[in-house]
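Handover notes (outgoing to incoming on-call)

Open items:
1. Cell division protein FtsQ: sequence verified, structure written out, both below. Nothing else pending on this one.
2. Nothing else urgent.
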Amino acid sequence: MARKNSKVDPVEPKPKSKRSKVVAIDDEETLTPAGFRPAIVDALGRRRGKALVVIGVVGLLAWGAQAVWRSAAPIVAARERYLIPADRIVMTQPPAWIVADVRGQVIHTAGLDRRLSLLDPAFPETVKNAFALHPWIASVDRIEKLVPAGVQVDVTYRQPVAVIETPFAETRLLLPVDNRGVHLPSEDVPLIRRQYLPRITGIVGQPPVGQRWEDPRVGGAVEIAALLGDVWEALHLQEITPSTRPEVSGSQQYFVYELIARGGTRIQWGPAPQARVPGDDAFAVKLQRLHECVKQYGPLDSIDSPGSVNVRGGLQVGPRMVKKPAARMVSKPEGEVVK
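Cell division protein FtsQ structure tokens:
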């Protein structure tokens, strides 16, 4: 009996089509990166979670610290070592024209003695407001904390540049005013000094001490007084009188001013520089004309000085007008009447 051949012919695999190759390649490309993506995502997720936990813990600690400080801050700030006594409140030395105890008045009025604490968040604002409200202080420039507990306050003081003469009962008051028209305390400026300051007349009413005059004429008058301050005495000037009504130039309205010398000379000065009137001469030009007048006609402190001087648009000098004696009726024997 013949044996069957057990050897089986190998079956050749069928060639895959191009489409199958493309699919296989696509599957391989798709599966290869996807196998690593979950691990990366998990790692990033774990790190992010830890970061959030850390941030949360830090936030809770900060919130807790703030809560504790808010409750403890008033107690700590009120400790004696942080409270500032009156003798440790230092300020800029007042100038010679102020005789008042400005520092003492501020401390007393605001109640600053041992009330200020270096740890108080409102410390700078409290100090600034206390000093800025004083009528002699123009500005608070710097506040510096000192150790041990103290404070240095640098300020700019107001300076009287003129007085406003105003009627009061049967007398007249001389109210000091600074270059911004602020009413200064009269009792702090000796009368002898006020009598020699430029005197502004024709102003009615007065604001409270420390506030500005609302009358716009005051602003121009104090500007002229401040600019003439260095030569006021040398020129023997005494008063500044503003016009009662403004002059008009086009659409602009402005007041004009007259200076009166101690000898009675009336000087037509014109508008103040701040009015900026078109065509008006500069302040320095007007002052130079006034100096020329003094050089030609002598000082303005006697009855021999000119009666009027106009420095607007040139120098014009007028003679002093002397009043004639009243006419008398004289009877003659023949009945004639003569003057």
